[in-house]
Amino acid sequence: MTSPTRILAPEGIAPGNGYSHVVWGTGRFVAISGQCALDEKGAVVGEGDARAQADQVFENLRRCLAAAGATFEDVVKLTYFVTDVEHLPAVRAARDAVISPDRLPASSAVQVSALFRPELLVEIEAFAVTDPADHA
Q1: So what's the pLDDT on residue 119?
Q2: Which of 12, 52, 53 is nearest to 35 (CA)?
Q3: Which of 59, 79, 71 is CA-nearest to residue 27?
Q4: Under DSSP, is residue 58 helix (H, G, I), strand (E, B) or coil?
Q5: What local confidence, expressed as pLDDT, does residue 55 receive?
Q6: pLDDT at 135
Q7: Given this model, what pLDDT does residue 4 score?
Q8: DSSP letter at 104?
Q9: I need a surface site. Which of 32, 90, 114, 129 has the fewest CB within 10 A?
Q10: Which one-letter DSSP state was computed for residue 134?
Q11: How far apart are CA 55 and CA 84, in angstroms?
């Protein structure tokens, strides 16, 4: 697979703030379920701290991607679920620590009234495209 193609702003579309409007690639599709700030034993990491939770979420995403033979380089779409849009700067900072600003995936952000546990602030799901030859 070649690297995913990213278009920050197609003609007639205003540039996004920290994401690509369009991303595509050819290869094996990988879907990662929404990850929350839970450690390997299921305990919440960073209660009350959006950045600490986002860091843990991206670590969990990294582990899930690795299980599929993928990395953040292969991610074409992220969906953020936050209990308050005020958490988005912390989520973006955690994302920028693992994804290069010139390789940003497409993304959506949704404020939700709650996640499945009241102490959770952030959930993120990911879609990636990898080279099928890596798993032949």
Answers
A1: 97
A2: 53
A3: 71
A4: helix
A5: 98
A6: 55
A7: 86
A8: P
A9: 114
A10: G
A11: 17
Q: What is the mean pLDDT of each run of 10 residues along the chain (136 residues)?
A: 81 91 92 97 97 98 97 96 98 97 94 97 97 66
pTM: 0.92
Q: Counting Cβ atoms within 10 Å, is residue 40 exposed (0-12), middle (13-18) or buried (19+)?
A: exposed
> 35 has which bridge partners?
124
Task: State the residue for tokens 């959770």.
Answer: 120
**Rounded to whole angstroms, how far apart are CA atoms 9 and 15?**
5
Amino acid present at 99:
I
Q: Which of 78, 135, 70, 129 has the alpha carbon at shortest distance from 108?
A: 78
Tokens 């579309």 map to which residue? 13
CA distance 57 to 49: 12
